[in-house]
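Continued from yesterday's entry.
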Amino acid sequence: MTLAPERDGTLAEVLDVLAARPLVVLTGAGCSTDSGIPDYRGPNSPARMPMTYQEFVSGSQAQQRYWGRSHLGWGRMKGAEPNAGHRALARIDTELLITQNVDGLHERAGSRRVVALHGRIAEVVCLACRAVTTRTRLHQRLSELNPGFAERHRLAEVRPDGDVELDDTRDFVVAGCEDCDGVLKPHVVFFGENVPADRVARCYAAVDRLVETGGALLVAGSSLTVMSGFRFVRRAAKAGTPVVIVNRGTTRGDELAAYRLDTGTSEFLTALAAARRG
C-alpha cells in the first residue's frame, strides 16, 4: 500500500499506519534530548560549528582545542541514560534501527539490530596504528595529565557535539596512543569524512526489503539536514515505501513523507510500542 505524499497526521492515524508493518527506523539527535543531550537543530538549539576532519588533522593546536573541549563535555555527558523513547524502540522489533547518534543509548536500552552510522563516541581510534580503545580509559588519562582543568572550567556550557563552549585550551595536555604515540581521534565520523561503505550498504539493503514486505520507514527526531540519513528517506520514497516523519519542527524530508507528526519522540515511540504490542 502506497500512501499519498506528505500531510500532517494525527497520532491515531500514524499509529494505525505503523502498528502492523515491518519497520526500519532512522533516529537523530531529537531522540536523545530527553536524556539531557542537547539537540542540533531543534527550536531552542544553540548554534554549532563542529570541527571538521580536515581541521582536526591539521595539527596539534586543533587537536588540543578539540580534546580540551571534548574532555569536559564527556565528563558531563557520559552519565546520560536511555530515555523512554530509547526503551520503547528496544521493545519494537524493528527490521533495522539506523541511528545518526553517537551516544550509544539505543544499544544500552537493549536494541539489537543497530547501525550507528557515525560511530560511537565511547570509543577512540589511533590514526596511526588504528588501535581502538575506550573513551573511559582516555578520560582517565586526560584527567591525570590535566589536574584541576575540569574544576576550573566547570561552568562551561555543554554543546550538542558532546564538547563545551571554551575558547582557551592552550594549557591542555593531549594524550597520544598508548601503543604507538599516534594521534587519537574519537571513533566517530567527523564532518568531511565518509560513513563507511559497509554501514551504508547494510542500511540500503534493509530499506530495499521494505518494498517486498510492505513495510515503512520511520524517521524519529531528525531534521534530515545531513545527507548520511536523508539518503535513506529518498531511497524509500522513490521505491514507493511509506515514509513517516516524527520530529519537532520541519525537516528536509517533509515533502517525501506520507505522514509527518510534530511531537516529541519519547511520547510517540512509547505509544507506538504499546500499539504494536496490542
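--- second protein ---
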Amino acid sequence: MPAKGKHRRPKSRARARNLVAAVAGTGGAALALPLIGAGGAHAAAPAPAPAAATTGLPAAAPQADAAVPAVPASASPAVYTVRTGDCLSAIAADHDLRGGWQRLYADNREAVGGDPSLIHPGLRLTLGAPGDRAPVQAPAERPAPAPKPKKKAPAAGSPLAAAPAPARKSAAAAASTAGASTAGATAAASGAVTAAGFTAPVSGGISTQYRTAGAMWSSGYHTGVDFIASSGTTVKAVGAGTVVSAGWAGAYGNEVVIRHADGRYSQYGHLSQLSVSVGQSVSGGQTIGLSGSTGNSTGPHLHFEIRTGPSYGSDIDPIAYLRSKGVTI
C-alpha cells in the first residue's frame, strides 16, 4: 500500500509512453498523440515541418533582390563668365562642347542677343551638362606596313648597271611649283599699293560677305566684310588718311577708324593690338595694328567696313569701294 496522502501514478500514462516508444523504435511514420493537461484534454497542433525534414534536401536559400544600379544625379550645367578677349568659338573649344560655338550660342541666345559676335566681359554663359562634351576617341591603330621586297643589284657588266637613271620631274611636283608661284603672285598683288594709294587691309580671303543676312546681327545683316586673319596678323590702312578713333569700341573690341581724303571712313575691328593713336596721319599700306578676336567675336578675323560717317549704321559696300580704288580682291 502506498503511503497515506500520496497518489499512485495512473497506469494509462505508462501505457501511453510505452506505445510511443514502440512506434519510434519501428522506424515507421511519426504518430501524433494528444497530450492530457490538468484542466482537460486539448489537441496540440503540430508545427509545420521544414522541407528539409521530410525531403532530406537542404532548404533553398532565399534569393537576394536584384541589385538596382544607382541613377546618378544629373550634374548641374557649368557656368562660364566671359573675360576680355574671349569669343564663343574659343570658349567652346576650350571646354570640348559638342556642337561647337553654334550650340553654345543657341543655348545662350537670350543672354547673348542677336549677334553672336557681341559678347562682353562679365557675361555668364551656360556650358551645358557634362554629357554635352564631345567624347574623346582613341586613335585607330594602324597596321604595320608590309616590308618592301629588296631589289637585287644588277650584275657587273650589265647594261642596267651602266645606264644612269634619267632625272624625272613628276606632274604633281610641277603643278605644286606652279601653284606656289601663282599664290605668291596673288599675295604680292593684294599687298601692293595701287596708283590711287590704296591696298587691301590683309592678304587673306573673305569669310563673310557684306550684307549677309542673318538674325545674329542686330541690324539684320552684316555691315562689313570679314577677312580671314589669324591672331597677330598685320593690319594695314587701306589708304592715306587721319585716325579719328583708336581704342575699345564695345562689340567691335579694339578698333581703328580712319577718315580718308574722299570723305569716306574705313573701320578695322576685333584687333588684338593697336599701333596708331587719334589724330595721327597714316599712309596707304601702313601698319595700324594686329588682328585678333576682341569684343564680340566668334574667332580671330578682321572685321572691315567702309562708311560715309565715323559711326555704326553708315556702311557702304567695302569691296566695291576698294575695287574702285584699283585694289584686286
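The chain has a mean pLDDT of 72. The longest helix spans residues 171-191. Will compare against the first tomorrow.
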